[in-house]
Amino acid sequence: MNGQTILLISDMRQVYLAEILTKKGMSVRCLDIRNSQTVEEQLLKLKKFLAGAAMLVLPIPVTKVPEQERLNEILNKNLANDTLVLGGCFTEEQRELLDRRGIRYLDFMEDEVVTQENAVATAEGAIAELTNHSPYNIEGAKILVTGYGNCGKAIAKKLRGLGARVTVLARRREVRKQAKEDGFYAVDFAFGPEEAMGAAMLVNTVPAPVVTRVIIKELPRDAYILDIASKPGGTDFACAKEFGIRADLVLGIPGKYAPKESAYILERSMERFAAKQKSIDR
To answer: What are the Dipicolinate synthase subunit A N-terminal domain coordinates in residue numbering (predicted)?
Structure first.
């Protein structure tokens, strides 16, 4: 990958990524947007440096950039046509903008390799959150895992490995079948209220309102709900508060618990994307 790579630093993942890329001999420019008071200054620098950029790496999610309208304006007016853009969870407006301009871009969260590798870091971080906030041990505890995608599957398997009694709630029959083949007790959300009885913890991975009042009201009052789904999550947080149950929406777990490993995951994805674009240009 020749030319300058611009990184918008929103967490330690980008810090380590800059270190990795620099050690590989790449020209890297970092713009730190973690301080809200200096974001405008950093975006002005982005506007200035974009003309010579080969790659632009945005945060995961891209919405971590506080000034979204300003970012979109810069992408529209100052981004060179041949600059490769990478980030996580682009908004629909950003996708339309990049498509309209013919800019080649990669959403890290749509790279299947990234999501599978990130699921491991997410699962380990989720267990750390459960350990920190639940009054119960994981071993022997009844724990509900809602959703059985990459993250749900990884979390359920690691919890089982720690001795938890895991129940998977999933909407689609084929997903429940897969969970059962993996050795889990799996049911439809219609049975959620029944399964909630006696559960010490609940981990939601579904980015839709699935942990609703009918489930929450059946949980013990000392249960802990961890929601790791995309904002705003899939839990009725107001209802949980009403029943005195702690419920946390925790996003960006890989960047919090395994930032360097996550940085290597992103670097490999960048390499694959750049190689693919290079082969297309030949």
So the answer is: 11-109
Q: Collect all residues with Cβ–Cβ distance below 8 Å to 213 and sequence separation of at least 6.
A: 236, 239
pLDDT tens digits in sequence order for the chain, 282 residues long:
458 999 999 999 999 999 999 999 999 999 999 998 999 999 999 999 998 899 999 999 899 999 899 999 999 999 999 999 999 999 999 999 999 999 999 999 999 999 999 999 999 999 999 999 999 999 999 999 999 999 999 999 999 999 999 999 999 999 999 999 999 999 999 999 999 999 999 999 999 999 999 999 999 999 999 999 988 999 999 999 999 999 999 988 998 999 999 999 999 999 999 999 988 877
CA dist., res. 29 & res. 53, Å (int): 9
CATH code for the structural domain at 114-251: 3.40.50.720
Instruction: Say what the pTM is.
Output: 0.84
Domain boundaries, the chain: 4-109+259-281, 114-251
